[in-house]
Write a structure and sequence with these properties.
Layout: E1 2-3, H1 6-17, E2 22-25, E3 30-35, H2 39-49, E4 58-60, H3 64-70, H4 75-84, E5 89-94, H5 103-106, E6 111-115, H6 120-129, E7 133-134, H7 149-156, E8 164-165, E9 176-179, E10 182-185, H8 191-194, E11 197-198, E12 221-222, E13 232-236, E14 244-245, H9 252-268, E15 273-276, H10 285-296
Parallel strand pairs: 1-8, 4-6, 5-9, 10-11, 12-15, 13-14, 13-15
Antiparallel strand pairs: 2-3, 3-7, 4-7, 5-6, 9-10
Helix pairs in contact: 1-6
Bound molecules: threonylcarbamoyladenylate and magnesium ion.
Threonylcarbamoyladenylate binds next to β5, β6 and β10.
Length: about 300
């Protein structure tokens, strides 16, 4: 784990050029990045995460122009990109033939998920390597997403050579994913902000990686809790105080930024279970509740 600075970016770029993967912060969560045009490097991401290979990855690029080299944009997609990039928006678009994106990145689909991140460390790394970077969240598959370098180190210890530490991520939830004018995964950019609707769960269009059980703590999770039952760790919100609170003042943006850190801490406690206070569904609350439902789901 090394702090963000020019030297650490140069070191990370050398690992990427040699076909390795490194953990790097974005404005949403920490990502595990590798050269998206190098099939062996991408295989290394899947191996480090223990991820099922049917689950495609997001490709990160430095600019809309770079994105147009790997994906085919229509006017609606270009307008979203111009308004919200760099930022926590991922667009699923037809993959451009001959762009060199490894088939493992798209898991064999004819579409590719692409975004231009806003974080200084990820942007510096993209500039240094000059290739698109495939990067899923930097956690073992199915476990809680990382919003701090320490979360990455705990989840992937010994499986990756380098974690660039640049503090807690700002948004705290993975990017909003849009395909064909519908939101596939709610995120920091809300339906209201984008002027789009969220695809019905289980509808015709779904993100292949949107498994019901995801972001799952080891301990059982109980939602909508207004008090603590015996042996539980209570994560509060607003008027519901707990062992910890997502936001005592009931601020949803603050709650989103703190959600995964709160789940990591609850899971590291010696409690028998994790209870979470109700979070309103408005605005980014929809994305918070999406992640909480997945955390609570047991197959
Ligand atoms: O904020 C983020 O998006 C973070 C940071 C690191 O950029 N990345 C992230 O990646 O959350 P990951 O791999 O954990 O989630 C990628 C999601 C999965 O649900 C996957 O199924 C979906 O993107 N996805 C990727 N390619 C897709 C495609 N061609 N069609 C539909 N969904 C796709
Ligand atoms: Mg993930």
């Amino acid at each position: 784990m090394i702090p963000y600075r020019d030297a650490s970016i140069a070191e990370a770029a050398a690992v990427i050029r040699a076909g390795g993967c490194v953990a790097v912060p974005t404005e949403t969560v920490y990502g595990l990045a590798a050269d998206a045009t190098d099939a062996r490097a991408v295989a290394g991401i899947y191996a480090a995460k223990g991820r099922p290979s049917f689950n495609p990855l997001i490709v990160h690029v430095a600019s809309l122009a770079d994105a147009e080299r790997i994906a085919v944009f229509d006017d609606a997609a270009r307008s979203l990109a111009e308004r919200f990039w760099p930022g926590p928006l991922t667009l699923v678009l037809p993959v451009r033939a001959g762009a060199g994106i490894a088939a493992l990145v798209t898991a064999g689909l004819d579409t590719v998920a692409v975004r231009v991140p806003a974080h200084r460390a990820m942007r510096a790394l993209l500039a240094a390597v000059g290739v698109p970077l495939a990067a899923p969240s930097a956690n073992a598959s199915g476990s809680i997403s990382p919003t701090r370098a320490a979360h990455v180190a705990a989840s992937l210890a010994g499986r990756i050579p380098l974690v660039i530490d640049d503090g807690a991520t700002q948004a705290g939830l993975e990017s909003t994913i849009v395909q064909g004018g519908r939101i596939l995964r709610p995120g920091p950019l809300t339906a209201e902000m984008l002027g789009l609707e969220t695809a019905a769960p289980g509808g015709a269009i779904t993100a292949p990686g949107q498994l019901a059980s995801h972001y799952a703590p080891v301990r059982p999770v109980r939602l909508g809790a207004v008090d603590r039952r015996a042996g539980e760790w209570l994560i509060g919100f607003g008027a519901v105080a707990g062992d910890d609170s997502l936001s005592p003042g009931g601020d949803l943006t603050e709650a989103a930024a703190r959600l995964f850190d709160a789940l990591h801490r609850a899971d590291a406690s010696d409690a028998l279970g994790i209870a979470v206070a109700p979070v309103p569904e408005r605005g980014i609350g929809a994305a918070i509740n999406d992640r909480l439902r997945r955390a609570a789901h047991r197959d």
